[in-house]
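Forum > Structural Biology > Help requests

Title: Can anyone predict the 3D structure of GntR family transcriptional regulator?

Hi all, first post here. I have the sequence for GntR family transcriptional regulator but no way to get a structure on my laptop. I'd be grateful if someone could post the structure tokens.
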Amino acid sequence: MARTASPDHSPVDASPLYRRVAARLRGELHDGTFPPGGRLPGERRLAEHFGVSRETVRQALELLRRDGLLATDRRGSHVALPGPAPQSPASLAFPVGARAARPCAGDRATVSWEPPSREHAEALGLAPDRPTLVHRYTSSTADGGGRRTAVTSFSAVALAEVGELARYRGRADGSASAQLWRAYDWMRGAGLTLHHRDTITRLADTQAVRVVRLVHDQYARPLEITDLLVDAGQDALVYEFTLPAAG
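Reply #1:
Sure, ran it for you. Structure tokens for GntR family transcriptional regulator below:
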């Protein structure tokens, strides 16, 4: 590959910009930033990520398609590298602590448009008193025990990128039922790769356990934070992990 020297004698890649973007994106495909079968962000988001125009991104994507690394359907581009399609781990049910993948008897969920707690605002990078979509979930067993409560706040990024979430703003009055159990599927469908960090603590002088989950995307942008309280004296919170294969 031809290279030229800059005034400070540092080598400069003289290849077309779209080829350099394609090379960077190829590296992200191979390192698992975008897993096999996973959706890529749209052209606008990729252009912002690489600091180039959408036309440059379009040319880079076409190059990767010709190389067999990407496939495109009506929903956009997805990774065509060999490997298993990404699964939705049981531990990533929305919200954290939900008893089942789908709402069931004893579950209650609503959404409101309001300023989140200070802790949530800081984690999501929101200005103080700036309103956002807040989801509240409560659940109890048939006998009224094993109570769980979860409060989730969504970031400005999540609302801008995920149309299904943004549409709740107009009807987020805090009273109508609003089960968002597919929230993580919606995020993945928008081309976001989800990463999460859970912090688990036992509340002093109580039998309650607190779980704080922060979810961010492949660009380290926060998407949502959930604060879950579980009555550990009457219930158990089960986590499932998938260990990497030995090799």
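The chain has seven helices and eleven strands. The radius of gyration is 21 Å.
Shout if anything looks off.
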